[in-house]
Design a protein that fits this description.
Blueprint (H helix, E strand, L loop, with lengths): L1 H18 L33 H12 L4 E11 L1 H14 L5 E6 L2 E9 L2 H11 L7 E7 L11
Antiparallel strand pairs: 1-3, 1-4, 2-3
Length: about 150
């Protein structure tokens, strides 16, 4: 019991020592090490953000790039282009709520379906489709972000 109390007391004393140090508890250090002014008017419930133009530019650049999301898809076909296009079209006719993707991996085209974040739902989709498409299997892939409801027209 004493061996468990010693690390706890040590962490507590370090935490209390870290909190005491400044003259004014409302004084914060800025990124350049200088203290932020205490007399800055603050309205309760508001946050004033002062950021560099470089940070704003980096955030806009990051938001404009496509961010891949790792997930799983079910591959239902691998073969020539015309048959792959026919299978994709037929799949979308029977399952309009499941996205289907056609991609090229030399010398074949492949049809992969679904945008699933976890392996378990991908295996469930595979089991649901195995009667229609024998020989299908789950593959890790970069998936599209799920669509938000009510934002189709924006």
């Amino acid at each position: 019991m004493r061996s468990a109390l010693l690390p706890f007391a040590l962490c507590l004393s370090i935490g209390l020592a870290a909190q005491s140090g400044g003259d004014d508890p409302r004084t914060f250090k800025r990124w350049d090490g200088q203290a932020a002014p205490v007399d800055t008017p603050v309205t309760p419930g508001t946050v004033n953000v002062h950021e560099s133009e470089r940070i704003s530019a980096l955030m806009q650049d990051y938001a404009s790039r496509k961010q891949p999301l790792k997930g799983y898809r079910v591959q239902i076909f691998l073969g020539d282009r015309t048959k792959a296009e026919d299978i994709r079209r037929a799949f979308l006719g029977r399952h309009p709520d499941v996205p289907a993707y056609l991609s090229y991996l030399a010398p074949n085209f492949r049809v992969r379906v679904g945008d699933l974040r976890d392996r378990v739902p991908a295996e469930k989709l595979r089991n649901d489709l195995k009667e229609e498409y024998p020989g299908l299997y789950v593959v890790p892939d970069e998936i599209e972000l799920p669509r938000l409801l009510g934002t189709e027209g924006k």
